[in-house]
From TrEMBL:
Protein name per the record: MarR family winged helix-turn-helix transcriptional regulator
InterPro entries: WH-like_DNA-bd_sf (IPR036388), WH_DNA-bd_dom (IPR027395), WH_DNA-bd_sf (IPR036390)
UniProt-listed Pfam families: HTH_34
Gene3D superfamilies, A to Z: Winged helix-like DNA-binding domain superfamily/Winged helix DNA-binding domain (1.10.10.10)
Domain Winged helix DNA-binding: 13-92
Signal sequence range: none
SUPFAM superfamilies the UniProt entry points to: Winged helix' DNA-binding domain (SSF46785)
Length: 94
């Protein structure tokens, strides 16, 4: 019997965000928006969901007078992502 895929990571945009954050130390909102081709509103909602789950940390600050949102994956997020990938592999290698 297969383990269920994490529904939080099964969303295309959230999975894309996690995939990007896994490979960098941290990423700015604008970088994630460009790389995922998402709207600011949709990305913001998905980042909130990942943050509420404890998968990422979202830090809001200012760069000069402009707001700056920086995201970083957490240990819990890395573990969840790795489990998701391993579960996906089980489905593929069935």
């Amino acid at each position: 019997m297969f383990k269920d895929l994490d529904p939080l990571l099964h969303s295309q945009l959230r999975l894309a965000v996690m995939s990007l954050l896994i490979s960098v130390e941290s990423a700015e909102f604008t970088f994630l928006k460009e790389k995922t081709n998402s709207t600011a509103g949709n990305l913001s909602v998905q980042l909130d969901k990942l943050s509420e789950a404890g998968y990422i940390n979202v830090e809001k600050s200012f760069k000069g007078k402009k707001p700056l949102t920086t995201c970083k994956v957490t240990k819990k997020g890395i573990k969840a992502f790795e489990e998701y990938v391993n579960t996906l592999k089980q489905y593929i290698n069935k």
